[in-house]
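Annex B. Sample input.
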Amino acid sequence: MQVAARTYRAWKIRIPALRAVEDAKVIDTLRSLKVLDAKGRPKPEILYGRRKMTAWLRRNGFPEVSKHTVDRLMRDEGMNGLIRGRKTRTTIPGKDGKRAGDLLNRNFSASAPNRIWVTDFTYVPVYSGFVYVALVIDLYSRAIVGWETSTVKDTAFVEQCLKMALWRRKHTKRPVDKGLLHHSDAGSQYTSIRHTDTLEIEGLVPSIGSVGDSLLTG
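Annex B, continued. Sample output.
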């Protein structure tokens, strides 16, 4: 059977055109996952890898989408998903066992700004492995008032986070008064002599919970 050249060319053009339409629909769906909700958070599916995303798309309007198509479109959109590796231990208790008492007693609330700060650090997966991220949070507003990133979880790392919080408060005309309660877990970084001395110099009152017991981990 002979096919006219014009018909054959039209058929060849139609196939990629259909794929482009389907790709556009999938791309719109992927981009919708990046839209932040009222609390400023993206949809949890944004963390899916290729396989989970393929399964999710097949359940949500794209029953025949292939994992190769999903992989290609996710890469085009810069969506890598969350790479799960071996769990990293961030909190290691101090060896001497000496530390301040738990003055907060898991009452994570404050009556005014600069009354109670809670600090902790965690790790965030990145392409080359992970980095540690330390935060200082004001319990009254739940605002992050200080932060620091590092590839090493030493005392200097958490010290920089605290110093940033103090500097930012001072330079935004909201300086910290003596007696602010500084709560952390019992990690060795927070129970170290160096960190304890810094709190005393700055006039902050230390409060230390159990290992892993902070606003970010508790």
